[in-house]
Design goal:
globular, 148 residues, 25% strand, 5 helices, binds zinc ion, two-stranded antiparallel ribbon, alpha/beta, 5-stranded mixed β-sheet
């Protein structure tokens, strides 16, 4: 989880720093953080793309971790994922179809639909609190920073 926390510090949308690490048998298969589409400017440079109070410019950390595995031809079936925040509904669906069997999250984030469905799908959801001492200093955001 500490590694996920470090990865999250690379996020390029300052509205939410999230990091994800996909692991099997203590081996890191893939990592991801929330950021813009490859080739497009970062939120920190070009501003956010706001829809209904959320920034939609970025691809979420867990999606990017799945994509990185796909680009590198790494099999992630039956693997575990460590995410600094619990997955949103869209990411949860992608993780489920990617064959992820265990989701460890650092903090609860917004959506609890996944929790109901996870049991049905035999996906283990585990709360792994972020260790105080492991907190990575977040670089100061350019411009006004909003939460949510
Ligand atoms: Zn943004
Ligand atoms: Zn998501």
């Amino acid at each position: 989880m500490n590694i996920a926390r470090v990865v999250s510090s690379r996020a390029t949308c300052h509205r939410k720093f999230v990091g994800a690490v996909i692991v099997r048998d203590k081996t890191i298969l893939s990592t991801g953080y929330n950021g813009s589409v490859r080739g497009l400017p970062h939120c920190s440079d070009a501003g956010h793309m706001m829809v209904e109070g959320h920034c939609v410019a970025t691809i979420h950390a867990e999606m990017n971790a799945i994509i990185q595995a796909a680009r590198n031809g790494v099999r992630i079936e039956d693997a575990s994922i460590y995410i600094t925040a619990s997955p949103c509904w869209n990411c949860f669906k992608a993780l489920a179809n990617a064959g992820i069997k265990r989701i460890c999250y650092g903090e609860f984030y917004r959506d609890d639909r996944s929790f109901d469905v996870a049991q049905e799908l035999d996906i283990d959801m585990a709360h792994v609190p972020l260790e105080e001492g492991a907190v990575v200093k977040v670089p100061p955001a350019e411009g006004p920073r909003r939460t949510g």
